[in-house]
Specification:
heterodimer, A: about 375 residues, alpha+beta, 4-stranded mixed beta sheet, 4-stranded antiparallel beta sheet, 11 helices, globular, B: about 400 residues, 12 strands, about 45% helix
């Protein structure tokens, strides 16, 4: 048993941190937030040169051939930097979908482009506001043509390919769509976190290819995998938000002393630190399950996702509060974190979705254990 | 990162399991026994017998050095042993304080003679230990304690009162921190001893808790004489020694938080109804339980991360405070929630309310755990100051000789 990342993995993480410190200070995030650019194109290209988009893509397809533990470290650093690039949807979902369900031809066509950053992938699942069951999907496929409306789609305005959840003959599946093709209409939408772009995509008889074996259960597994990596991104953001807040409250004096000397503040900082550590431990366990394709992933992904979304959001709420009035200004960076935390919490299903899923999966595990015990008892009796 | 056993670890686990299968019955319920409560002579006997059995087979205090009767095992092996033992029914543990706190303190700060004198009998369970730290006016501010020791020849004469001493009435030995110099600042005037609990001048009175348990005692010292060779570390070095005990205490309370019991809530909600429907279909119920489980699992995996740090030769830092802080609050909230789910019948107790009985017991005992070994507030201070490096609280007693420290409101 060893419950820590290796020295090599930590070195890779440090390299990522150094690169982002130079190429993605918080001013980069702000630049995208304040401009019409959908994402930081130079940073996206640089990240690809570092091998990040292709981290888990095999070398034969132009990737770095790392494992998911390495990708988790990169995700953490991307989150720490609030990097304004379409990393999660492209790397955690679209790339994973093709790696797991793509045909040889689909892999050859898309993986090299995804690895080099020349293609951006996204995931089109949601169709309307609210908590929607997979059965409620209305997008449909007939004779290789996809029709339906997906909204919002993260990075839907800039993506070159989409993995779309749709129904064919009543069964849910995933379909790969080249967004340069005909029958596709996209419209950028105003984003709650403008450092990350959102769009609506209308498919009207767009050419699509099915991903083999990507049924409803496979979609759930794909979401599990993406949830673990997103948890690392969220914990990265939470750590950075706590560090910035810490520096502020130590330097800010009121009543003749640093405001950090007040228990009303330091005790809440301690609680936030605990929340983040709980999230980190859950995420480490989930990363292990992901990297080893262990059956524990189904429960571990829920744990990691719920804890990380919660820790990031709570930290950014207190971040603004502890900064006082300046924390509420556009000029200070607090709202960059506050927005990103909420944006990431809604991606891939909200905490509400994951909490219910966790209870479902724990019940299944519990019943399986009981059934097994009964069976063993019966065998013994016989 | 690897959650699986290495071949060596797997072999060790198999050996541990084989011994347990031969010597204990498999556990049927995850609900943990609360130790240290209602210590009847029969329970003490059972506990000592089990400890002796383990010691004879080399399964007691396995991380302690071989020369004193331990096994010289690694922290990982100790965790494996703990995981395996948890699957078996074992008697209530009267050694948790001796093994969790007193032993490690003596092993860290004692002389070789002291270790040889006390550690082997602690391992075999022949001698039970207690901890004499808190006083009526020194709880969170432990270093403000007033029980005094004055040197007379080769002996120290102790006078004062200790409180919250678990199991004092059944113990052979206690670890004791007292004031040996009131003219210096409070932390500098403390010294650490081992005291024989049968010494003349010691009087023990049980305290009844809110759950009617009598785990705790008041211990009064009237001219109790302690030989100087029972002093641990130097005169005036008592605070540093006490910190070793306290860190071990927090780790040992935190790790015994009964994380598995939280997941029993998943089964518990299957047994109950809300408005004629199974509680397991109620979304709010499900989401609350999910939140509890996330915390409980997070604590479990945190302890595994600590273990990895230990096995890499790092010492666990003040982070150990987290497991007790988060774990105790979590358990109290979970118990409160379980009682709420039981509905109006949670007004009943014990046999009359079988469904919620275990949770009610926990609800009544948890306020104690939030205080024992450092209150929530002290633990938050430790995390804020030692982990996050935030400024310390302003202390009105800073730089004062202990005798000049205010002890109450100014007299009118």
């Amino acid at each position: 048993m060893n419950f820590d990342f290796s020295d090599e993995q930590k070195l890779l993480q440090q390299t990522a941190r150094d690169y982002l410190a130079e190429h993605s200070p918080l001013s980069t995030c702000r630049e995208i937030l304040e401009s019409d650019q959908p994402y930081a194109a130079a940073l996206w290209k640089g990240a690809a040169e570092m091998g990040w988009q292709g981290a888990v893509i095999p070398e034969e397809f132009g990737g770095a051939g790392f494992g998911h533990l390495e990708l988790a470290m990169i995700a953490y650093e991307v989150g720490r930097a609030l990097a304004p690039i379409p990393f999660g949807p492209s790397v955690f979902v679209a790339t994973e979908a093709i790696l797991r369900h793509g045909s040889a031809a689909q892999k050859s066509a898309w993986l090299p482009k995804l690895a080099s950053g020349s293609a951006i992938g996204t995931f089109a699942l949601t169709e309307k506001p609210g908590q929607n069951a997979a059965e409620a999907i209305t997008a449909s496929v007939k004779d290789g043509k996809l029709s339906g409306l997906k909204s919002p789609v993260a990075d839907g305005d800039v993506a070159s390919l989409a993995i779309v959840a749709a129904k064919e003959n009543g069964a849910t599946g995933l379909y790969l769509v080249d967004l340069a093709g005909a029958g596709i209409e996209r419209k950028p939408l105003e984003s709650f976190d403008p450092s990350r772009s959102q769009a609506t995509i209308r498919f009207d008889g767009a050419r699509c290819e099915p991903l083999a074996g990507a049924d409803a259960a496979a979609i759930a597994r794909l979401l599990d995998r993406a949830a673990v990596l997103t948890a690392f991104e969220q914990i990265g953001g939470a750590d950075r938000a706590l560090e910035i807040t810490r520096a502020f409250i130590v330097g800010r004096y009121a009543f003749g002393k640093p405001i950090a000397a007040n228990q009303a503040i330091k005790h809440r900082m301690a609680d936030l630190w605990c929340e983040i550590e709980i999230a980190r431990s859950n995420a480490y366990y989930a990363a292990w399950a992901l990297a080893n394709d262990d059956a524990e992933l189904s429960v571990a992904a829920c744990l990691a996702r719920i804890a990380a979304a919660d820790a990031f959001e709570k930290t950014t709420i207190e971040m603004i509060e502890f900064h006082g009035g300046v924390g509420y200004t556009w000029e200070y960076d607090c709202h960059l974190f506050y927005r990103r935390a909420k944006q990431l919490a809604g991606l891939l299903g909200t905490p509400k979705y994951w909490k219910n899923l966790l209870i479902d999966r724990l019940s299944i595990q519990k019943n399986a254990i009981q059934k097994n015990a009964t069976k063993k008892g019966a065998e013994k009796a016989a | 990162m690897d959650f699986n056993d290495t071949p060596d670890e797997a072999a060790f686990r198999a050996e541990a399991r084989a011994w347990l299968e031969k010597n204990a019955r498999p556990r049927t319920s995850m609900t943990p026994t609360i130790s240290g409560e209602d210590l009847t002579p029969e329970i003490v006997k059972q506990s000592q017998a089990w400890q002796k059995k383990k010691a004879e087979a080399g399964w007691a205090c396995i991380t302690w050095p071989k020369e004193y009767g331990g096994r010289g095992a690694t922290p990982i092996q100790n965790a494996i042993w703990g995981q395996e033992q948890a699957n078996f029914e074992t008697p209530p543990d009267v050694f948790s304080i001796g093994i969790g706190m007193c032993g490690p303190t003596i092993l860290t700060h004692g002389t070789p003679e002291q270790k040889q004198r006390w550690i082997p009998k602690l391992i075999t369970g022949e001698e039970i230990w207690c901890q004499l730290f808190s006083e009526p006016s020194a709880g969170s501010d432990l270093a403000g304690l007033r029980t005094s020791a004055v040197k007379q020849g080769d002996e120290w004469v102790v006078n004062g009162q200790k409180i919250w001493t678990s199991g004092a009435q059944i113990c052979e030995w206690g670890i004791l921190v007292v004031r040996t110099d009131a003219a210096v600042a409070k932390h500098a005037g403390l010294t650490f001893f081992v005291v024989n609990m049968h010494s003349p001048g010691i009087e023990i009175r049980p305290i009844t808790q809110i759950n009617r348990g009598q785990g705790f005692n008041e211990v009064f010292f009237s001219d109790v004489r302690i030989p100087d060779d029972q002093r641990i570390s130097g005169v005036g070095n008592g605070w540093a020694v006490s910190i070793t005990t306290l860190m071990n205490e927090r780790m040992s309370i935190g790790s015994g938080m009964g994380v598995g019991a939280i997941e029993d809530l998943v089964g518990f909600m299957d047994e109950l109804e809300i408005d004629g429907r199974p509680a397991s279909e109620d979304r709010q119920v499900r989401e609350r339980i999910a939140e509890f489980v996330v915390k409980a699992r997070g604590l479990k995996y945190t302890s595994l991360r600590t273990l990895s740090a230990l096995s890499q030769g790092k010492t666990p830092g003040p982070e150990a405070s987290m497991s007790k802080l988060v774990g105790a609050v979590l358990q109290q909230h979970a118990a409160s929630f379980a009682m709420e789910m039981a509905g109006t019948s949670s007004a009943l107790r014990g046999e009359a309310a079988p469904a919620a009985a275990a949770w009610q017991e926990r609800y009544l005992s948890l306020p104690g755990l939030r205080i024992a070994g450092g209150t929530d507030e002290i633990l938050r201070n430790i995390i804020a100051e030692r982990v996050l490096g935030l400024p310390p609280d302003a202390r009105a007693d800073k730089g004062l000789a202990f005798k000049d420290v205010p002890t109450g409101p100014p007299k009118a």
